[in-house]
Design brief:
Blueprint lengths: L5 H9 L4 H8 L8 E5 L26 E5 L9 H4 L2 E7 L5 E7 L8 E5 L6 H15 L2 E5 L13 H17 L1 E2 L8 H4 L3 H7 L12 E2 L7 E6 L3 H8 L6 E5 L5 H5 L14 H4 L7 E6 L7 H10 L7 E3 L11 H19 L1
Parallel strand pairs: 5-6, 5-9, 9-10, 10-11, 11-12
Antiparallel strand pairs: 1-2, 3-4, 4-6, 7-8
Helix pairs in contact: 5-8
Organism: Mus spicilegus
GO biological process, one term: negative regulation of NLRP3 inflammasome complex assembly
Protein name: Abhydrolase domain containing 17A
């Protein structure tokens, strides 16, 4: 019956698991933070000021500019020039958690920005190098965030927090104001309406708001990308907002289907029900999955592809597991073709 044994069905209906327990079985595994945020001097009217002391780890952020400090475990594979392209800040979710955000400017004037939701056992520090390399190779800038309980983000990992976290990241990408070091040269092209900027600006000091660079990225320039557990908030957001495109990398259909692989039905207590939401996505969807995935079986990717009306030609990577798809040449080749050829043709 629905692929479950009698004993499993008895267990489920007599002691049905709550979504949080299913999530625990899937295992959020936040590592010890591999980064902190170091405050830069706040800029007053004269362009100088004193820097607050100490890195940001778990205390609330103060308004201003921040730089990322990586520990050795972050294993950053590039130099200072690439590190300087990384902008970091903290926003707040609707569930009152502090969410660390990162914007990697890989390509000046890039047509698309990728909103990347990472896997369950890494944080932003560990993903830095990958973001720099990925964005440079596919011609996109990368925006990412840490889930509640990951990195310096507060709270604890949970399904509800995942949805609130990506909402906060989406809103930050759409409206956030920052003062990057190179903004002076762009003052005349960025904010012509100081009053509008002042209304959106999160800074409390008297910095000239014309010098603040607002991301202000429109939905049709945002590609939502989710990897593994990151496909859960990605599918949820994409089912509610239209965007340029969606990439689902090693996705899961639902928590129950991971815990009980023969499950065919979505129960009311199931967690992470991607399979029930993917049909609501109105943007082009590229699904990528390894045929030898030992964590989330290849059948999950196939089931989502069959359920998704907006799915494009998928990428099934023969022989790839859960954590090595990026090492196969067809990974970048398929992403490049999707972004540089297929998306423009669909917009034409």
């Amino acid at each position: 019956m629905n692929g479950l044994s009698v004993s499993e069905l008895c267990c489920l209906f007599c002691c049905p698991p709550c979504p949080g327990r299913i999530a625990a079985k899937l295992a959020f595994l936040p590592p010890d933070p591999t980064y902190s945020l170091v405050p830069e001097p706040e800029l007053g009217p004269g362009g100088a000021g004193a820097a607050p002391s100490g890195p940001l780890r778990t205390s609330a952020a103060t308004p201003g500019r921040w730089k990322i400090h990586l520990t050795e475990r972050a294993d950053f594979q590039y130099g200072q020039r690439e590190l300087d392209t990384i902008e970091v800040f903290v926003t707040k979710s609707a569930r009152a958690n502090r969410i660390a955000c990162m914007y990697v400017r890989c390509v000046p004037g890039a047509r698309y920005t990728v909103l990347f939701s990472h896997g369950n056992a890494v944080d932003l520090g560990q993903m830095c190098s990958f973001y720099v390399g990925l964005g440079t190779r596919i011609g996109c800038n990368i925006f990412s965030y840490d889930y509640s309980g990951y990195g310096i983000s507060s709270g604890r990992p949970s399904e509800k927090n995942l949805y609130a976290d990506i909402d906060a990241a989406w809103q930050a990408l759409r409206t956030r104001c920052l003062y990057p070091a190179w903004a002076d040269s762009l003052v005349h092209t960025v904010w012509r309406a100081t009053a509008v900027c002042a209304e959106l600006c999160p800074l409390s000091h008297s910095t000239d708001c014309r010098k603040l660079l607002r991301y202000g990225i429109s939905p049709d320039s945002i590609i939502l990308y989710g990897q593994s557990i990151g496909t859960v908030p990605t599918v949820d957001l994409a089912s509610r907002y239209e965007c340029a495109a969606v990439v689902l990398h090693s996705p899961l259909t639902s928590g129950m289907r991971v815990a009980f692989p023969d499950t065919k039905k979505t129960y009311c207590f199931d967690a992470f029900p991607n399979i029930e939401k993917v049909s609501k996505i109105t943007s082009p969807v590229l699904i990528i999955h390894g045929t030898e995935d030992e964590v989330i079986d290849f059948s999950h990717g196939l089931a989502l592809y069959e359920r998704c009306p907006k799915a494009v030609e998928p990428l099934w990577v023969e022989g790839a597991g859960h954590n090595d798809i990026e090492l196969y040449s067809q990974y970048l080749e398929r992403l490049r073709r999707f972004i540089s050829q297929e998306l423009p043709s669909q917009r034409a």
